[in-house]
Amino acid sequence: MDEIVVLITTGSEAEARSIARVLVEQELVACVNVLPGVRSIFRWEGQVAEEQECLLMAKTVSQAFDRVATAVKSMHSYRLPEVIALPIQQGLPEYLSWVREVIKPTGQTA
Description:
This protein is α+β, with helices and mostly antiparallel strands.
């Protein structure tokens, strides 16, 4: 399995915490860091916008990405939420092993 970090932005810390808890409870991710106070500047519907957001950093495996994205979309208040993944190039072997161990195998549901 290939370990990844999934980045998700939300409009509030409460929404971020709710999404993070569900992802962990459903064993789709091993851990989520919730980083409030992120300032995002982006182009949306032809305009440059600036918003205060919360960033989630979820650790999981690439095989779980589609399930994570589906779960996030079902809970998220944004019409088009940011859900992107970055590969983990290196990490403490014991930590990466733990990430792999706690992710529910493909096809299982909570």
